[in-house]
Automatic annotation (TrEMBL):
Species of provenance: Dekkera bruxellensis
Highest taxon in the source lineage: Eukaryota
TM annotation in the entry: 57-84
GO aspect biological process, one term: lipid metabolic process
Keywords: Membrane, Transmembrane, Transmembrane helix
Matches recorded under Pfam families: Abhydro_lipase
Protein name: DEBR0S4_12684g1_1
Length: 462
C-alpha cells in the first residue's frame, strides 16, 4: 500500500515527519549526510497512460495464469519427490529431539512472531523505517525484559530468499536468536522491502514501479536504513555485528564490497555468514525448473512471470492455509525440492512452525537477477572478479559451511577470500559442518552446539 510519511513510526513514540531527512552517507549525499536530491519523484513525472495501463493489466492477467500453472507443476513435482523419498526410498531418518523448543511442547500456529518470543520469556517490538528510495520496512527488536545489565553489542540478523526474520526465532529455545539474547547481545531481526505487507510512501503494490528492484537496492537502501535505525534507536557508539543466512549473506558481502561504494565498514565489527550464497553450487545445473527459467529470454520471462511481485499467489495461499497441516507439508516439500534439502536433523515437531513466516513478497526482477543476471551459476560468484572485493577496513568474517549444501558452495568462497583477496587472509574463518544442508544451518536440532558455540566465540573476538 502507498502511505504518507506522517503515517510511519520509527519506534513506539518517534515519528518521521514529511520534511525529515534520512541521515545516511551515500554517493548522493554530502559529508554531513544531507540528501542533495529529492527522495521521491513528483507524482506526474511517470504518469501511466490509459493504453499502457491496459497493456499492463493484460500482461498481469496472462502472467498470473502462467504463474499459477508453473506453481501447480512445481508443487506436484515437489510432493511427488517427497513421496518418493519417504515412502519408496525410505529415507525417513528422524531422531527424536531431547530438548524442548517451547515451554508447552509444540506451540499453536500463529503468524504473530511476537507470540513465539513471549513463549520464550522474551519481548519483540517492531520499528518501521523508510529507505532512501521510499520503501517502508520493519525491523524487529528481540529483548529479554528480565535482563538488568547492559547488552554487549547490537547484532542484526538478515534472512534468506523468500524468508523473513521469523526464520531466526521459530526454533524457540534452540534458535540462534534466543542464544544471542541470553548471552547478552542486543538482537535485531531485519526484514527487507515488501515482506508480507508491501508499503511505499509513493507507489501502490499494483504499480510496476514499486517492484523495480533487485539485490543491489536491497544492499544500498534496505541494509543501510536498518543499520542507521539501530544506531539511532540504541544510541550505541561502537560497531554492530551482522549475521546472515543465504541471500542475507549475499546482501552483506555485496554491501561491504568495493563495487557498491557504500563505505559502512567502520560501523561493522564482524559478520557471520550462514550458508554463504556467494558462489553457486552443483544443484544449479541439475534442477529442471532452474534450466527452464534461465532458458526463457527476458521478454518471455516478463511475459510469463510479470513485472511486479513474483508469484504473489504464494502469499495469499499462506494467509489462507497457514493453520492447516497441508500448508506445512506443502511448504516443506517445496523448499526441500527447490533447495535440495531435508528435515532429518530438525526437531520435526517444529517443521510447520518454521514455514509460517515464509514465503514473502519478492520482485520478479530480483528472481531474474538470481536466475538470469549477475546471480547464481555453478562455480561462479555473484560479483565480478576483475577487481578486489574488499579493503583493509573490511570486518572479519566467519563462514558456516554445510557439507551437504548443494545450492551454494561456501568452500569456494572461503578459498577465494583466503587466496584472492589480500586483505582477508587474516580476517576470514570457516566452520565446516559435515552433513548439514542449506536449511540445517538455521533449524538443525543441535544448531547451538554445532554452530552457536563457535559463533559466540567469534562474536566475542576469540
Amino acid at each position: 500500500m502507498a502511505v504518507s510519511r506522517r503515517d510511519i513510526f520509527v519506534g513506539k513514540n518517534e515519528s518521521i515527519s514529511p520534511n525529515s531527512v534520512i541521515k545516511r552517507r551515500s554517493p548522493d549525499s554530502d559529508e554531513e549526510g544531507q540528501i542533495r536530491t529529492p527522495l521521491i519523484k513528483p507524482k506526474n513525472v511517470d504518469r501511466i497512460f490509459p493504453m499502457k495501463r491496459l497493456s499492463m493489466t493484460l500482461l498481469n492477467i496472462f502472467s498470473g495464469i502462467c504463474c499459477c500453472f508453473f506453481l501447480l507443476v512445481l508443487e506436484i513435482s515437489a510432493l511427488l519427490s517427497y513421496f518418493y523419498r519417504i515412502h519408496i526410498k525410505r529415507e525417513h531418518k528422524y531422531t527424536p529431539s531431547v530438548k524442548p523448543a517451547y515451554p508447552m511442547g509444540k506451540p499453536k500456529k500463529s503468524i504473530d512472531l511476537r507470540y513465539y518470543a513471549q513463549l520464550l520469556g522474551l519481548e519483540l517490538s517492531t520499528h518501521k523505517v523508510i529507505t532512501q528510495d521510499g520503501f517502508v520496512i520493519d525491523i524487529k527488536h528481540l529483548t529479554d525484559p528480565k535482563r538488568t545489565e547492559p547488552t554487549i553489542r547490537p547484532v542484526l540478523m538478515l534472512h534468506g530468499l523468500l524468508q523473513s526474520s521469523g526464520a531466526f526465532l521459530t526454533g524457540g529455545y534452540k534458535s540462534l536468536a534466543y542464544m544471542l539474547v541470553k548471552n547478552g547481545y542486543d538482537v535485531w531481526l531485519g526484514n527487507n522491502r515488501c515482506g508480507f505487507n508491501p508499503q511505499h510512501i509513493e507507489y501502490d503494490p499494483s504499480d510496476y514501479r514499486m517492484w523495480d528492484w533487485d539485490l543491489t537496492e536491497m544492499c544500498r537502501y534496505d541494509l543501510t536504513a536498518m543499520i542507521d535505525q539501530i544506531f539511532k534507536i540504541t544510541g550505541f557508539s561502537g560497531k554492530l555485528s551482522l549475521v546472515g543466512h543465504s541471500q542475507g549473506t549475499s546482501q552483506i558481502v555485496m554491501f561491504l564490497s568495493n563495487s557498491m561504494g557504500i563505505n559502512y565498514a567502520d560501523k561493522i565489527e564482524n559478520c557471520t555468514l550462514l550458508a554463504p550464497a556467494i558462489f553457486g553450487g552443483p544443484m544449479l545445473n541439475q534442477k529442471l525448473f532452474i534450466k527452464f527459467m534461465r532458458f526463457l529470454p527476458d521478454p518471455m520471462f516478463d511475459l510469463f512471470f510479470g513485472r511486479r511481485a513474483f508469484i504473489p499467489i504464494l502469499i495469499s495461499l499462506r494467509n489462507m492455509m497457514y493453520k492447516s497441516r497441508m500448508y506445512g507439508l506443502a511448504s516443506y516439500s517445496m523448499f526441500s525440492y527447490l533447495f535440495d534439502s531435508n528435515d532429518y536433523k530438525w526437531d520435526v515437531s517444529l517443521r510447520d512452525v518454521h514455514f509460517l513466516f515464509s514465503p514473502v513478497y519478492q520482485s520478479t526482477k530480483l528472481m531474474k537477477w538470481w536466475l538470469k543476471g549477475q546471480g547464481f551459476r555453478m562455480g561462479r560468484p555473484i560479483m565480478s572478479t576483475d577487481s578486489s572485493w574488499f579493503r583493509g577496513d573490511t570486518p572479519r568474517m566467519l563462514l558456516i559451511i554445510g557439507g551437504a549444501d548443494t545450492l551454494v558452495d561456501g568452500k569456494m568462497f572461503y578459498d577465494y577470500a583466503l587466496n584472492k583477496e589480500p586483505f582477508m587472509k587474516d580476517k576470514v574463518e570457516s566452520l565446516f559442518v559435515e552433513g548439514y544442508n542449506h536449511l540445517d544451518v538455521l533449524w538443525s536440532d543441535d544448531i547451538q552446539d554445532t554452530v552457536g558455540k563457535r559463533m559466540l566465540r567469534f562474536l566475542d573476538g576469540e
